[in-house]
Amino acid sequence: MPEPDPTRRHIVIIGAGFAGLAAARALKRAPVQVTVVDRHNHHLFQPLLYQVATAALSGAEISEPIRGALRRQDNARVILAEARLVDAAARRVHLWTPSGEELVLDWDALIVAAGAVTSWFGNDAWEEHAPGLKSLADAHHIRNRVLLAYELAELATDEAERQRLLTFVVVGGGPTGVELAGALAEIASHTLRRDFRAFVSSSARVVLLEGGPRLLAGYEPSLSQRARSDLEALGVEVRLNTLVDRVEETGLVVGDERIEACTTLWAAGVHAAPLAAELSADTLRDGRVRVTPELRLPSHDRIWVVGDIAAAPRDPEVPVTSAAEAIPAVAPAAEQMGRHAALQAVRVLEGKAAQPFRYRDRGAMATIGKSRAVAQVGRLRLAGLPAWLLWVFVHLMALVGFRNRLLVFFDWVLAYFSERRGARLILASPVDEPHRGRAAPADPADDELE
After folding, report:
1. Which of 63, 214, 307, 419 has the most crowded CB, counting CB atoms within 10 A?
2. Given this model, what pLDDT does residue 439 score?
3. Closest Cα to residue 149, out of 167, 170, 127?
4. pLDDT, tens digit, for every residue of 408-443?
5. What is the dihedral of CA 199, 159, 436, 145, to 10 degrees?
6. By three-state DSSP, how is residue 382 classified?
7. Sheet holding 257-260, edge to edge
8. pLDDT bracket for residue 275 (50, 70, 90)
């Protein structure tokens, strides 16, 4: 990557997710110097992260090195570091590098696209027993736990303990929770059905807990019902209006009932990245920063906040007062916001007025399993095989990198016809772990991206 050009105005982008990468690419031909800062060296396609967690894909297939994604962009450079402090008055951002050193960047315009993290709604102690899914490390950890649970069930001599090991609970009935539950059910009923001798894999129990009255709350009610029906057809126990009171190592408590489970996965909510709190701005309950119609901080006309960290108004004329009124935290919205912020930053640096952002809703879709999905695009409502084929096409085209598209396509074709999952590796040394139904951290020798 080139060294920064001191003769050009400097735009710093914090985060290389959907919003950050879209912003950087939008500046390819702009007369500015671009610096992209991220804690990881790769862009992650999060909509398919659940397939890494459930052994359908490898982490490398849904990731692209940031430097590779920007290789042909001569005005961009990449810094591997974490942004922890923004000095708006001095137009500086303070970074911490992997070596523990502080690095300070001056900027003429700043685009904050730091994303979101899993939220346990104030119950952070639950994280150890109910991991979330926001990174490759999370996906590998979940995959280890799921596969190790089956291995331990093969060794169990007590039937009650075996059933606990084969009970998987997913908390949260949004797209991630629905897709995780469906994939876990397919693993039990199809993928592993001939792999074990001491038990029948289809005896595994998958429970999906949702605190609201229906799954996929942002979808049409008919599609929510279809998703529930498809999950139940796969054997998933769907429980609505169910709140978790406590999560423990050996299970969880919901109301007056205790569910004995080896594996609990958390897909119930997210919170804006910690950097949001450093921007000295008004935030929603989920930590997202309230921004102007131009996606800027109200207190600073050269700081744009985009993606999952931003609470942007759907209507430029109507201010955001609640999460329901904000643009949804989904990949298409993040990409649109990132591109808009980049172009407006250039306009402002050229002495022009910034223009308001107008969100174009691209629809929503979720997959439940093989040939099972729901989708709403404009006035179109699809379910079953047509929705699943649309989901496959959209996600293949959205992946960054031709190699990734090709690899994922072949993996999906193989899985469709063979019902096998090719990434069923426990990336740890579970023999060294105590008998707790939990795998060790990912092995550093793993050749997938971390």
Report:
1. 307
2. 43
3. 167
4. 999 999 888 887 766 677 876 565 554 444 444 444
5. 30
6. strand
7. 246-248, 251-254, 257-260
8. very high
- Domain boundaries, given as residue ranges, for the chain: 9-55+62-118+270-349, 124-268+364-432
Question: Which CATH number describes the domain made up of 124-268+364-432?
Answer: 3.50.50.100
Instruction: Tell which residue, 52, 18, 12, 120, has the closest CA to residue 329.
Output: 18
Comparing CA positions, the residue from 3, 19, 17, 11 lying closest to residue 291 is 19
Tokens 């059933």: give the residue: 163
DSSP E strands, 88-186: 92-96, 102-106, 109-112, 116-118, 167-171
Residue-wise pLDDT for 319-366, tens only, equals 888 888 899 999 999 999 999 999 999 999 999 999 999 999 999 999
Query: Would you state the structure tokens that stand for residue 373, as one six-digit string?
Result: 């999905």
CA 298 to chain centre: 28
Among 423, 437, 441, 421, smallest CA distance to 141 is for 441
Category of 228 on φ-ψ map: left (φ > 0), alpha (ψ -120 to 50) or beta: alpha
Q: Check: CB of residue 152 under 8 Å from CB of residue 345.
A: no
Q: Write out pLDDT tens, residues 81-102.
A: 999 999 999 999 999 999 999 9
Question: Hey, which residues are catalytic here?
Answer: 179
CA-wise closest residue to 69 among 115, 118, 16: 16
Q: Which helix (H) or strand (E) holds 300?
A: strand 300-305
Residues in CB range of 219: below 8 A, 6 or more apart: 227, 364, 366, 374, 376
Residue type present at position 91: R
The CATH architecture annotation of domain 9-55+62-118+270-349 reads 3-Layer(bba) Sandwich (3.50)
